[in-house]
Amino acid sequence: MALIRLSLLLTLLTFALSTNAKRYIGGDQWNRPRINKSFFIKQDKFIKELILRTVKVVNTKKRKVGTAFFYKENADHYIFLTNYHVISGNRECRDSKLLLINSQFNKRYASCDGVIQEGTIKSGSDYIYFKVNKEERLNFLSQISEVRTDFSDPVIGDRLVSVGFGAGKANLRRYDAKISMDRDCLYLNGNIDITFNKDKVRDVFFTACDAQSGDSGSAVMNLETGDIIGLFFAVADQKRSNPLTSKEIQDNLGTDYMEFYTNASMSIDLRKIKLK
Fold first, then answer.
1. Which of 35, 37, 159, 240 has the highest Cβ tally under 10 A?
2. Please, which residues have CB within 8 angstroms of residue 159's CB and are 6 or more apart in sequence?
3. Are 77 and 132 in contact (CB under 8 A)?
4. Do 146 and 168 touch, CB atoms closer than 8 A?
5. CA distance 2 to 192
6. Single pTM value for the model
7. Would you say 179 and 162 are in contact if contact means Cβ atoms under 8 Å apart?
8. pLDDT in tens, 86-130
């Protein structure tokens, strides 16, 4: 069965970062509301922290948008995590500007100040840790919980949530984050290794969370536990407008249903790409 999954994913896997704002729909309806101040203040602690730690990444030279999230801090820096295909090394780090909001929903700006650790597709993953110099305007990050990597395995059917800048404008004027947290945004299956352009990406899990180009680098949080469990990086290349229905999802949870692999959004298990 694993070999079949891999061969299908060879043609169906595509990065969720492009100029055309491609959509992945899990379930019957597209549901990714934009986050504004009114929405933010109504959320619980877990969701508020997820929003506060999520960062818009704008490559000012290539005019592309991605997402990153706050991971931890040390004495001099805040450390963030995103995909390597969002910030591909130190050169793109220098070209990348960041937009966040604080707990009063005011915009805060920062720059990528250097790469700490990276994993490329060639090496079997797709991540990059980068640092941001500590400044007073970013002090609110010190009040956010650091990401844990000692969480228990997710359970099939666990509800998930993700915040990202899919379809966002390639500028820092607009805070245009959106959230995926409808009833179809579920943990479907994992972990397996998949093949992408003849290279292997390890420890991938599959979800039915709606996503869009620019969401690459988003944190995937387990709503049942509050743990951030994955780094979103890709979606299936859907040939139909809605190939995985809500009924299909509910009827096949806990089974080895092929559609869960070929029509899914995909993330890398955070425990497998820990900061060393």
1. 35
2. 181, 183, 185, 186, 222, 223, 224
3. yes
4. no
5. 8
6. 0.92
7. yes
8. 999 999 999 999 999 999 999 999 999 999 999 998 899 999 999
